[in-house]
Amino acid sequence: CQVALRIMHSYSHVVPSTQVTPDRADDLIRNLFATHQEFLFGQFMQAESSPLTVAQLHTFLAELQDPDALRLFLLSGLCLTCGNGAANGGKDCWGSKFLDDN
């Protein structure tokens, strides 16, 4: 996460969209990375998170005082899980294993 932030700010020519990113978006990206460092969403989706880690996430997000950070974190978690199993190729390469019509 720190590397991505450094690239965004110090080497913006590598990621040209960061040159026109509003400050608010920078804050959201920074908060998103911080939240992902604090809480592993994949473990939560697999019911491997303890109540303590969920409470720590709640406290962390309350300290951020940014409701959009939670929304973006949840959306990014959903996006990450949508690709589960796609790397195996075959029929799974065309969509999510669990977000289907069934």
Describe the structure.
With 102 residues, the protein is mainly alpha-helical. It contains five helices and no strands. Helix 2 packs across helix 5.
Give the arrangement of secondary structure elements:
Elements: H1 2-10, H2 23-38, H3 41-45, H4 51-64, H5 67-82
Helix pairs in contact: 2-5
The percentage helix is 55-70%
Uncertain segments = none
How many strands, what sense, and barrel or not for the largest sheet? none
The ordered H/E elements are HHHHH
- CA radius of gyration is 16 Å
Q: Give average pLDDT, whole number.
A: 80
Count of DSSP strands: 0
- Counting helices, strands and paired strands, the structural category is mainly alpha
Individual helix count: 5
Strand content: under 5%
Shape: globular
N-to-C span: 36 Å
Describe this protein with a few key phrases.
single chain; 102 residues; mainly alpha; 5 helices; 0% strand; globular
Offer a concise description of the structure.
The chain is mostly helical and 102 residues long.
